[in-house]
Hints:
By secondary structure, this protein is mostly helical. It is 67% helix and 4% strand. Strands 1-2-3 form a three-stranded antiparallel beta sheet, with no helix packed on it. The radius of gyration is 20 Å and the shape is globular.
Amino acid sequence: SDLNKDIMMCDIVFGIIGGSVALFLASIVHYRWWRQYAFYIFLTTLILTALVFVPKLGAAHGGATRWLEIGSFSMQPGEFLKIGFVIYIATWLSGMKAQIKSVTRGTLPFLGLIALAGVPLLMQPDTDTFLMMVAAALAMFITAGGRYRDVCIMILGGVLLITILALTRPYIKERIEIFMNPSLDPQGSGYQIKQSLIAVGSGGLVGRGFGQSIQKFEYLPEPIGDSIFAVYAEEFGFIGSTILVLLFSGFALRGYRIATHASDLFGMLLVVGIITVILAQVFLNIAAMVALAPLSGLPLPFISHGGTALLVTLGAVGIVLSVSKYRRPAQK
């Protein structure tokens, strides 16, 4: 169809070609360059994310207003906000030093920055992206020397926030209920997870074969989006799924290893934040498809369709490569 052709063209132009260019440019630019303009990058991505609420610019889909549409071009600015947020938090934390252990100078301002980034996302609503950013921020906070007591208090506060959101936003409550009992509404809210489990189970040990998925035809919602892991599992089976999980695990371990050898604290925090954002998205997507977490609606990095998501992710990986390029030499 024309819609599928447009999606494919967007993925090729903005995702593959644009992402490859972004990866190359980000890898050759010294990562400390991002520190100089961190505030302006964060501010710009915040404004872009807020523009989705401007009439004739913002576009809604599935009850959420997360896209900007200018003519035939569309993008999800929340993807840019994730990286802009990580860059700014890395800059801010690396400049705090000993003050990070102070409640008034470290913890409270840190929570204020999270809240600032969370307001436009929760208004869209895009709770899943916000949770990924919080996970990355907490990982960076711990890496920078934040006290575990403060981290535990923030986690408890996050649980309270999710509880409040579940009570005030029916779709979050519904996700949690379906997660606890997938058969609660098999023809409604529980339909996607049921079809996903059927697809994963149908793959068996070695799968049906590339392109041979049955569930992706009219049964499984968003087969090239957030449900793509279920399609992959059906076509490549348990062995193929295990290989994919191992590849993501290797990617994460390599990323954190680069962080440990970064030449300064800013580089370390930058890599920890980027890898954690990507890893959290991978976990939430795959866990949701096998009923180990509530449905998130998040794409699977590097695999799901989405030109903006792939562009931003590849660009972020380019920053990680830049940190690796300028890492301190290994001790003999």
